[in-house]
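Troubleshooting log. The previous structure file for this entry was overwritten by mistake, so regenerating from the original sequence record. Sequence copied from the archived sheet and checked twice against the printout by T.R.
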Amino acid sequence: MTGLKKSTRVLIFGGLFFLVPIIIAFVLWKHLFQILKPLANRISHVFQLQSIFGSATLLIICILLFLIICFIGGYLIEKGILKKWSANFEKKLFIFFPSLQIIKFRIIGDQETVINEFWQAIVFKEDNYYKIGFITAKQEKYLAIYIPDAPKLDAGEVRYVKNETFEYYPIRMKQAMSAIYDFGGGLDIETIIQQLNNSDK
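Regenerated output below.
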C-alpha cells in the first residue's frame, strides 16, 4: 500500500512538472495572440485571407507575425544594431534563466552571438584534473573566471587568476553547455587535453 502511494505521488508530481511549462507557454501565447490579433485581423481583411484559410486565418497570421518579429530581432542583433542591448540582456538571462541559456546554446550554437564578447567558455587545468569555466572579464594581469555547478549555471564560484600562470583551452559555448547539462558528457575532453598539452610544447 505504501509503495502504491509513493508511486502515485511520483506520478502526480511528475505530471505536474510536465504540465507547468506547457501551461506557462499556453498563457504566454494567449497574451501574445491577443496583442497580435488586431494586426492579424487587418492583414486578413486587406488580403482577403479568410477565404483561403478559413477559421484558422488569424492563428496562422499571428504565428507568421511572431516568426517575423523573431527573425528581425535576430537579424538586428547579428548585424550589431542592438549589440549593446543584446549583451546586457544576455547577462540578465544568465542570472534569471540559466536553464534557458543552456538550451539556447545547445540548439543554435554560438557562432554569431554577442555573448562571446564577455563570456568565453574554457577548459582549464587545476591540480591533476580539468574543469569547465567561463572567462567573464579580462584585465591586464588578471582574468575573472566563473566556475558553474552542473547541471545549472545559477550556482558556482568566481576566481581571479593571473594571466601568465593560468593554463586553459578555449572551447565553444555549445560544448560547454552540453557538458554542464549532461554532467560532463557531450564533450571530447581527450582531444581538448591533447590540444592543450600540444600548445604547451
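The chain has two domains: 2-81, 114-200. Archived copy saved in two places this time.
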